[in-house]
Amino acid sequence: MTLLDGKSLSAKIEKDLAVEIQKISEKGITPGLAVILVGNDPASCAYVGMKAKACKRVGIYSVTHEMPSTITQDELLSVIDILNHNPNIDGILVQLPLPKHIDSEKILEAIDPKKDVDGFHPFNIGRLSANLDAFIPATPLGVMRLLKAYEIEVSGKDVAIVGMSNIVGKPLASLMLNAGATVSLCHILTRDVAAYTRNADIVCVGVGKVGLITADMVKQGAIVIDIGINRLDSGAIVGDVDFANVAPKTSYITPVPGGVGPMTIATLLQNTLKAAKNRSDSRKGI
Ligand code: GUN
């Protein structure tokens, strides 16, 4: 069993990014990311803080707009409009979830697709689904980069994904399909999840349920990607996989923490650089 070490891979990606960002900055384009945080959900605050720190490490200019949870939808839309027109901002990220009185879909659709570094705008979702160049959500793209770094072939494999969120499961299914895998996307109404995971060469799970994937649900030699993040009462962070019992059966497995999580941040930084490069190219009239 080999651990898929997202922590060291993301550190390497950040190092390479810092060099590239330095170069593009010398040409007068400093990548800029605007993060919008509504309310003070502790997990969201922690994620936004990690994203801002990571930007700083690689030389991306970042600004966090902290909004009260009482902000109206129209007020939030006007903040996005201003950022859409701000030439120093290449990427706009609205941290989810948003308060219930705000229509998240409407907010995500208001982001200029060229600045949609989260890849949540229907324009980018559609392009990903059609296997065209697009901004791809950071977590599933991080999973693909991790597999690639360990030279794990996806083409022709049977992949079971558990969890069909717009942020992780659905875009991951598109990426896996585009890479030539046969994909089963399991969700809350799936009658027998184990029937799919047991036959899969690669099992990916991200639903936020401790111990969901047990050893009997995974075949010998499978690759297991744990995208869950759960905080136990003890304060420990664990994924959705019963790691102690599942790991010995696998050929590769991601640890939590230190697997997919750090890759998500590194990929967001890459997406922001991609947006800045697009800005640079459009200035040249390409
Ligand atoms: N909330 C949980 N994951 C994410 C993410 O990847 N992007 C945003 N914007 N919000 C999230």
Protein model, in words:
The chain is an alpha/beta fold. The protein folds into 2 domains: 28-114, Rossmann fold, CATH 3.40.50.10860; 138-260, Rossmann fold (3-Layer(aba) Sandwich), CATH 3.40.50.720. The chain is built from 10 helices and 11 strands. The strands form 3 sheets. Strands 1-11-8-7-5-6 form a 6-stranded parallel sheet. Strands 3-2-4 form a 3-stranded parallel sheet, sandwiched between helices. Strand 2 (32-38), helix 2 (42-58) and strand 3 form a beta-alpha-beta unit. The termini are far apart. The model has no long low-confidence stretch (mean pLDDT 97).
Widest sheet: strand order?
A: 1-11-8-7-5-6
Shape: globular
User: What would CATH call the homologous superfamily of the largest domain?
Assistant: NAD(P)-binding Rossmann-like Domain
Structural class: alpha/beta
CATH architecture of the largest domain: 3-Layer(aba) Sandwich
The residue-averaged pLDDT reads 97
- Give the total of beta strands: 11
Assess the beta-strand content as a share of residues.
15-25%
Distinct ligands, ions and cofactors found in the model:
guanine
Rg from alpha-carbon coordinates: 19 Å
Q: In CATH's first tier, which class of the largest domain applies? A: Alpha Beta
| Biggest sheet descriptor | 6 strands, parallel
Count of separate structural domains? 2
GO molecular function: methenyltetrahydrofolate cyclohydrolase activity; methylenetetrahydrofolate dehydrogenase (NADP+) activity
Domain Tetrahydrofolate dehydrogenase/cyclohydrolase catalytic: 4-118
Keywords: Amino-acid biosynthesis, Histidine biosynthesis, Hydrolase, Methionine biosynthesis, Multifunctional enzyme, NADP, One-carbon metabolism, Oxidoreductase, Purine biosynthesis
Subunit structure: Homodimer.
